[in-house]
């Protein structure tokens, strides 16, 4: 049946009405990334991203089943990661799913995971040409109360195809070739950039596919929401305290505070609605909390590609050259005008 044979009623055609879906622009993550594969290089990257998409679907399933799985997926694992943080069972499951998927993709030489102290060489990728850094499960403290959580990833090119070079995992953020995150929220979204625009997909569980729903996402130039853990305010320096005080006193329109405590969820809202997300330096944690390589870099890369900004308070996040795979960085990201204003307050002291 051709499209012409389906007369349009309102904005849908008869088939769309019958199925109760809009199929006119149906594009899955699979077709989207295959269409971006212009040469041998990008086809390797497409395969890598396909494998990440599958891992995210697998984790989304685990998240949905978590409360029904008789404690097999929920709760603490009884172990700690390299940062001394308690690991949850889902942290470990998500790490296994991500790392096995990347290894089997055959396109990755080395990986960095929040959950593993050392670099992870990819045993089954003798010809891999990419490096993948990831936070398999972001927002661990929200796992057991059904609040939104996510996964974050960033991809670099390896210096030499099939060669495990530890230095490849310490490239500046601006040298990433792709980055993305999955949000396991009221819907499951996958947000992705392969260096151009930022695209958002929504998981259609009846199809088992990520469907393109948010083409060419642009973060508003300024916004009315700020997002920061105010429980740490006693440790803030004067610049940070003055900025938050200033924001609270803006009248027209008044600003709102929103803080979920899962970076993926807080940044996703910031990307769509505008405003800022901050995890600043303070007297307790000079470098903030969030990890440069697999939390700050991918989110900063996405934010910039969507027209926003990401700063450590003084300098662009993506200009940092990391010296350790698990190092941390303060971060302020979101609408470009609002991030500039934060920088002004932080550098005026
Ligand atoms: P993770 O679960 O991967 O360790 O990350 C948690 C992070 C991040 O998601 C969030 O923005 C931040 O921790 C929240 O920290 P606070 O509870 O200190 O506000
Ligand atoms: Mn995290
Ligand atoms: Mn994590």
Question: Could you outline the blueprint of secondary structure elements for this entry?
Answer:
Elements: E1 8-9, E2 12-13, H1 14-19, H2 29-36, H3 40-65, E3 76-80, E4 86-88, H4 89-105, E5 108-113, E6 120-121, E7 130-138, E8 149-157, E9 178-184, E10 188-193, E11 198-204, E12 209-214, E13 225-227, H5 238-248, E14 256-257, H6 263-273, E15 276-279, H7 292-305, E16 309-311, E17 331-334, H8 336-347
Helix pairs in contact: 2-3, 3-4, 5-8
Bound molecules: 2,5-anhydro-1,6-di-O-phosphono-D-glucitol and manganese (II) ion (MN) (2 copies).
What does this structure look like?
With 349 residues, this protein is of the alpha+beta class. The protein has two domains: 25-214, Fructose-1,6-Bisphosphatase, subunit A, domain 1 (Fructose-1,6-Bisphosphatase, Chain A, domain 1, 2-Layer Sandwich), CATH 3.30.540; 225-348, D-Maltodextrin-Binding Protein, domain 2. Helix content is 30%, strand content 23%. It is built from eight helices and 17 strands. The protein has an eight-stranded mixed sheet with strand order 6-5-7-8-9-10-11-12, with helices on both faces. A hairpin with a 5-residue loop joins strand 3 (76-80) and strand 4 (86-88). Helix 3 runs antiparallel to helix 4 and helix 5 (238-248) packs across helix 8. The longest helix has 26 residues, at 40-65. The protein is globular, with a radius of gyration of 21 Å. The N and C termini lie far apart (68 Å). The mean pLDDT is 92. One manganese (II) ion (MN) binds next to strand 7.
């Amino acid at each position: 049946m051709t499209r012409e044979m389906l007369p349009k009623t309102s904005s849908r055609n008869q088939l769309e009405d019958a199925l109760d879906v809009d199929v006119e622009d149906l594009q899955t993550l699979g077709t989207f990334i295959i269409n971006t594969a212009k040469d041998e290089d990008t086809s390797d990257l497409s395969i890598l991203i396909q494998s990440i998409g599958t891992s995210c679907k697998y984790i989304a399933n685990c998240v949905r089943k978590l409360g029904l799985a008789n404690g097999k997926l929920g709760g603490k694992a009884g172990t700690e990661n390299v940062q001394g943080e308690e690991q949850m069972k889902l942290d470990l499951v998500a790490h296994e799913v991500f790392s096995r998927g990347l290894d089997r993709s055959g396109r990755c030489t080395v990986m960095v995971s929040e959950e593993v102290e050392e670099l992870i060489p990819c045993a089954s990728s003798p010809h891999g040409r990419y490096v993948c850094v990831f936070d398999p499960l972001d927002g661990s403290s929200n796992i057991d109360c059904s609040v939104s959580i996510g996964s974050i990833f960033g991809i670099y090119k390896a210096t030499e195809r099939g060669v495990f070079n530890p230095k490849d995992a310490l490239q500046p953020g601006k040298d990433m070739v792709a980055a993305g995150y999955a949000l396991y929220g009221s819907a499951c979204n996958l947000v992705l950039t392969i260096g151009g625009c930022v695209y958002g997909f929504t998981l259609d569980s009846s199809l088992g596919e990520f469907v393109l729903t948010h083409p060419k996402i642009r973060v508003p130039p300024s916004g009315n929401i700020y997002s920061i853990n105010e429980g740490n305010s006693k440790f803030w320096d004067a610049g940070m305290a003055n900025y938050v005080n200033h924001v609270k006193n803006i009248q027209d329109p008044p600003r709102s505070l929103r803080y979920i405590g899962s970076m993926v969820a807080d940044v996703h809202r910031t990307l769509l609605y505008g405003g800022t997300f901050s995890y600043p330096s303070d007297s307790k944690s000079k470098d903030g909390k969030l990890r440069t390589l697999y939390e700050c870099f991918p989110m900063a890369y996405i934010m910039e590609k969507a027209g926003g900004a990401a700063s450590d308070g003084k300098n662009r996040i993506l200009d940092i050259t990391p010296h350790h795979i698990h190092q941390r960085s303060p971060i302020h990201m979101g609408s470009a005008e609002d991030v500039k204003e934060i920088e002004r307050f932080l550098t005026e002291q």
